């Protein structure tokens, strides 16, 4: 277990007395501005709490900033709101408060530092959802000594702590279910490279198709959104017998499109999703075959990781994958002209 940092350790490193360190950290007179900043910088580096952080440590409470891209809320993808509620509930149980800030689209392009970082009143930061490398780099730089954990997104080149669902094996399970029903022509619905989650799920689909000796080609991938993230699906000229969608929101949109075009689900076409999220206003959601993401376990794992980083600044980063399970509902069945499997 790492040795607890003391004022004496800071004093020894800089070559001053513990009294000088105490005054500097408490912003008392008798210490030059240069020495004060040097002491504070070293204290942050060594993980020694002072000022507001010290008060929170003593009370065993504090604030955790939670960032969510506004597009994931505005455009109906409220799966992340469900995840946010799990985070806040779990944080409250251990004496922390979740402070939400929505990331505006323009702020990502700049990129603009979140206000919760500017105010310097948080002990840790959680980013929910995918943001570009430029924005993530800005967060890591401006967070300074504040631990950061990424939830439901990752970049293996960043060296950051990330908590994700098992998109790869989950989508492989969903695709395998359709194959077991007798489907051979299965299209994937999702815009590749939009998010790491979509890519993971696509690769899981490819794996299941390949293992079963089935063909999968680039033209069997149906984009689900335009450049600004707005959902937009165009049905292919020749339909497959089944679709696997990167999330339940997309699955429900696709089902509505198919029904409006005169197709019956699953008699004519089977549709499966991912997440197990009930989409308000789209009644098909409660009946979609899907892979259930354990949002509660993801939220708890994220909090556990963040607390470890708060209490131990030298904690090593890693990627944690949270598994879920397949749920079979009424939107998948045997392909047309093939008897149902009892």
TrEMBL record:
GO terms for molecular function: DNA-binding transcription factor activity; transcription cis-regulatory region binding. InterPro entries: HTH_LacI, LacI/GalR-like_sensor, Lambda_DNA-bd_dom_sf, Peripla_BP_I. The keyword Repeat does not apply. Residues 5-59 form the HTH lacI-type domain. The keyword Lipid biosynthesis does not apply. Keywords: DNA-binding, Repressor, Transcription, Transcription regulation. Gene3D superfamilies: 3.40.50.2300, lambda repressor-like DNA-binding domains (1.10.260.40). This is Transcriptional regulator, LacI family. It comes from Ethanoligenens harbinense (strain DSM 18485 / JCM 12961 / CGMCC 1.5033 / YUAN-3).
């Amino acid at each position: 277990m790492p040795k607890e940092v003391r004022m004496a350790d800071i004093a020894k490193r800089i070559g001053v007395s513990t009294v000088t360190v105490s005054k500097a950290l408490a912003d008392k007179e008798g210490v030059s501005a240069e020495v004060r900043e040097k002491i504070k910088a070293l204290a942050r580096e060594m993980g020694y709490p002072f000022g507001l952080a010290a008060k929170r440590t003593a009370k065993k409470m504090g604030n955790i900033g939670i960032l969510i891209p506004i597009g994931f809320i505005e455009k109906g993808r409220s799966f992340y709101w469900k995840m946010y509620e799990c985070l806040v509930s779990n944080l409250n149980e251990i004496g922390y408060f979740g402070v939400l800030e929505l990331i505006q689209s323009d702020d990502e392009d700049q990129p603009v530092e979140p206000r919760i970082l500017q105010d310097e009143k948080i002990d840790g930061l959680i980013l929910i959802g995918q943001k570009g490398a430029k924005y993530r780099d800005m967060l890591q730089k401006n967070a300074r000594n504040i631990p950061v954990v990424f939830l439901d997104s990752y970049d293996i080149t960043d060296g950051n702590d990330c908590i994700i669902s098992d998109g790869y094996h989950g989508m492989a399970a969903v695709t395998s279910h359709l194959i077991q029903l007798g489907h051979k022509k299965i299209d994937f619905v999702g815009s590749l490279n939009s998010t790491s989650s979509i890519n993971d799920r696509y690769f899981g689909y490819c794996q299941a198709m390949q293992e079963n000796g089935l063909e999968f080609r680039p033209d069997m991938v149906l984009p689900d959104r335009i450049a600004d993230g707005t959902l937009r699906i165009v049905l292919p000229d020749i339909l497959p017998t089944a679709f696997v969608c990167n999330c339940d929101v997309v699955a429900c949109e696709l089902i509505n499109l198919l029904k409006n075009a005169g197709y019956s689900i699953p008699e004519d076409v089977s549709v499966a999703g991912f997440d197990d999220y009930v989409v308000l206003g789209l009644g098909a959601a409660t009946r979609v075959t899907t892979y259930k993401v354990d949002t509660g376990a993801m939220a708890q794992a994220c909090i556990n990781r963040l607390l470890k980083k708060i209490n131990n600044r030298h904690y090593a980063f890693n990627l944690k994958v949270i598994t879920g399970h397949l749920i079979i509902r009424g939107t998948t069945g045997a392909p047309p002209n093939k008897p149902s499997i009892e």
